Amino acid sequence: MTTATTTSTATAAVPVNRGDRLPPTAIATVCLSGTLDEKLDAAAEAGFDGVEIFEPDLIAAPAGPREVARAAADRGLSIDLYQPFRDLDSTVDDRFARNLVRLERKFDLMDDLGCDLLLVCSSPLDTAVVDDDRLCEQLATAADLAAERGKRLAYEALAWGRHVNDYRHAARLVDMVGNPVLGNCLDSFHILSRDDDPAGIATMAPDSIFFLQLADAPKLQMDVLQWSRHHRCLPGQGNFDLAGFIRAVQAAGYRGPWSLEVFSDLFRHADAGRTARDARRSLRYLAELAGHDPAGAELRRVTGDVVSVRVAAGPVMAPKVAETLSHIGFDLQGVDSETGLRLYRDADIAVVVDATAGTVWTAPGLPADMPSIAQIGMRSDDPTAWTDRAAAFDVPVASVAAPGTVSTGDEVVRLEVTDTLAVDLRAVVSAAEWQQRFDLVPRQPEPPSHLFDGVDHVGIGIATADWEGAMLLLRSVFGMHVDDGLDVPDAVGTMRSQALTMPTASGSTVRIVASMVPSQLDAHGPLRRRGGLTHAAFACDDIVDVARACRSRGLRALSIPDNYYDDLRARYDLPENMIEQMRDLDILYDNDGHGGEFLHFFTPTIGEDLFFEVVCRRNGYRGYGEVNSPVRVAAELHRRAVEEAGGR
Ligand SMILES: O=C(O)c1ccc(O)c(O)c1
Ligand SMILES: [Mg+2]
Hints:
- It comes from Gordonia insulae.
- This is 3-dehydroshikimate dehydratase.
- Pathway: Aromatic compound metabolism; 3,4-dihydroxybenzoate biosynthesis.
- Keywords: Dioxygenase, Lyase, Metal-binding, Oxidoreductase, Pyruvate.
- By secondary structure, this protein is of the alpha/beta class.
- The protein folds into two domains: 265 residues, Divalent-metal-dependent TIM barrel enzymes (TIM Barrel), CATH 3.20.20.150; 339 residues, 2,3-Dihydroxybiphenyl 1,2-Dioxygenase, domain 1 (Roll).
- The protein contains 20 helices and 25 strands.
- The strands form three sheets. Strands 17, 18, 19, 20, 21, 22, 23, 24 and 25 form a nine-stranded mixed beta sheet that branches. Strands 1-2-3-4-5-6-7-8 form an eight-stranded parallel beta barrel, surrounded by six helices. An eight-stranded mixed beta sheet has the order 10-11-12-9-13-16-15-14.
- The two termini are 35 Å apart.
- The structure holds 3,4-dihydroxybenzoic acid (DHB) and magnesium ion (MG).
């Protein structure tokens, strides 16, 4: 056997595909970090057609409005909106008169900026006008001024407006004023954060919708103003039904720009170029959800479940990974002479371990104490369709030749989600087919064991800074669906986790559980979380049988305390012998209250991060045994403490 330390692989960037026929796209400068120039650069480079200039960005810029206009034009960007104009109406007459002066000064500025559309948001002040007739009078006065100056006003109902906080109310007022320079600005956040029904938008006159602002957000229980100003995200990163929203807007006949307005604490310090690229990708995603032509890169379902898991182990930890794998039924089937990749197999599931250091295959620079899942493999009957699709979403794709197949030119679509996960789609990935590609060591291996039916789910860690981008990537390119996220407190922190699912052509479901690793933990290295996080879970029918088989193969499953089983007995009416069996085999249990049951056990963590799980789903259980996750973490910490103290 020869073990190469470098792989003979070729990577080639796929050119960006802009043939995606989107509606005109825009982004508010508030979404992006940096100076106004840097924001414009990022917007232009990502392919946006226009920008909303957010007033504080202009006020703080060294360039005057004429120069900003030139800077935008030089980059091919239109300035579609200037915003916001706050607190226009007032019950205090002097104040309203002063507001009109302020409005005129902004029109002066907009003359220089070459922008004719001003966003006017509803007032949240105690002095807001709460009488519709009087409010109409004031709006009409402002509209007359705008008409004189060749400007238009887009009225937006803020979710926390004192009197106007509902898009229908705003639209009624716009109607009552009846001046064609006054129209509506629809912002998905203000509508969906209130759980309002966007269906009414479909009946609005298309000419009355002057502007469209798009933002998603995670479902949070908090003050709506704080939610809006700190926690918005891009379409495809949160929990709002933006597809339903955009369909209502399209039904109304709106033809103007789709503009992103994302106030986000994360984006304020993220790289502007990356945010802008994600932002454009999010509109591409939304356009597809809304039924736009995906320009020949439509989503093809993968043909079946996850069939291979690639572990980046490195030379030091590879034997430890091998030992644990053998305990749960995966025996060595072959070693690739060129790359040193080792194939382990149970039935049709392949686990491929990279025992070399820092290769293009896996996670370059992974420390020796941190084996980790680097890629998963799914079958596709058309892998190049995935390459095209990734390119259509501006996802850089590296083409990597499979081991031993360089000559046949097989392509692997290797999509980087984070440094530690690449999703690997190839035409040929089943364990049997993998096997043909390896020099077999031993030459005549035992036939593989058959403990498992497949991969139930894969758990991955994603750094806080990569989280939003990874969610968007998994949802857009792969068409994954998200459930509501979940925060699980445990012994080392609160774990934010998000389950994603992907239907396959065979009617099954690929499941990924992403967990957020706080950036401060990985600022000086790769993702780390005490107690481990990255895992592959294998599915079986009879977990007691499998647990016994694993025990006889040498597994010491992660030891679960008696307290846990005493609590199970209190919580559920489970047969006593079942509880005793679970106690004996360290099997954990969950029940969804509708007859669905979940039984699972864990291997100890290998190195800092990686473990394997064996699971059994019954009667349509849909979760992941999340309630037991703190028990696993505490059990793992305890196991280590004992190990370090020299006991075993
Ligand atoms: O938070 C705000 O004040 C604010 C300003 C302008 C907008 O378009 C908006 O949606 C919110
Ligand atoms: Mg808005």
